[in-house]
Amino acid sequence: MKRKLIIGLVLILLVALSFSNVYATDSNDEIAPVEDLETLADTTEGTWTDFSNAKVEVVKSANVGDYDISITGVTPIENHNYYYTVVDDNSTPEFSDSFDRLGYDSSKGTLYTTESISKYLELGPDQYLYVFEQYLETSSSEFLNKIVLNKVLLEKPEQKKYTEVFFSALIVANPNYSDCSTRITFNTPWEMGTSRKVQLKIGRITDNDILNGIKNGEATAFESLLNYAKNNTGIYNNILEGNRDLSMTAGGIKLTTEEPLINANLITNDAYYYLYAVVDDENGKYVKTEGVTLAQAYKSNEIANTYSLFFYGDDDFEWVDFEGSDNTGKGDSGKDEPGKDEPQEEEPPVDNTVAPDKIPQTGTNYTIFVVLAIIAIVSIILYKRFKKYDF
Hints:
The protein is of the alpha+beta class. The protein has three domains: 2-27 and 361-388; 48-153, Immunoglobulin-like, CATH 2.60.40; 162-311, Immunoglobulin-like (Sandwich). The protein is built from six helices and 15 strands. The protein has helices at residues 2-28, 34-43, 118-121, 208-215, 221-231, 364-388, and strands at 55-60, 67-72, 81-87, 100-105, 110-113, 128-137, 142-153, 166-173, 180-186, 195-204, 236-243, 252-257, 272-279, 289-299, 307-311. Strands 11-10-13-14-15-8-9-12 form an eight-stranded antiparallel sheet. Helix 1 packs antiparallel against helix 6 (364-388) and helix 4 packs antiparallel against helix 5 (221-231). The radius of gyration is 36 Å and the shape is elongated.
């Protein structure tokens, strides 16, 4: 009988221990799933960097017209070099030492291009990124290379519209100076040294409904101005050579001439003029850029043939009374402060009595310990009692 009792107590303890092991295994699944551990083991093997979680982004740089590439989700290997190239869909590149090398910012965990990629983004056809990894194999003293990021489509920046196409614009005529200046800079990818054909068209806005629409911030006002500019004859319409060189911070038109772009006799003080521009795609070679904006003319009464065009958004641009003006303009921007008068939805109060999706597992080990302790104590008491009566 005693032997049966001891065997029974041992079985109870074994069952309890098995239960605790199963419980502990289940409670740790969320912290370290088996599949995650296996994946981690796979990524640490081999000689090449893992790019399976790489995220490629095209980001705007500090310079107008310039863009960079950033790659996150990658941990570079020490003493390995990473080169990149960008090509169209019709070719697959072979490695070359002439490819540009990627830099690495360890604080941000980001691989990045050290040169502007605008020369690729300004092109019309889709462009694809390839990243090569290279390292010196010590056993053979040879450099090995491999494509580690294969044919990733570069997302080109969203095309600007209307006034946003222009980063800045300057049209001035003053005979007291040795020259007259025209400078129009476009807010679009434009590589240093690239020459582009730009259609430039300027004309007076005589449709007061369009002016009122812009003044009052109507949503379709600039679309109406764009159509108006396309169909209007204008006082200036020409195709110019646009470029980007060391004298310009971005691509665009820069003219310095003795004669003004527009004859001063065609300019009326305080009148409004449109500026319509198209950076030509040259039969699909480049991305086409089209924009329109407006300017208020200032013409000097004291100095002949002197005028300036103050463009929309400039501090000197003003709305003046014109025929049909309803005098309800909302400022230079033509827009109310977003969300100022809109009712705000209240967020529902947080119910602190509701348990989260997964109940925290704090105290699990403590509970198991208590259960085992109770079983052990009961077993000892029963054993002593049976021993006393000598069962």
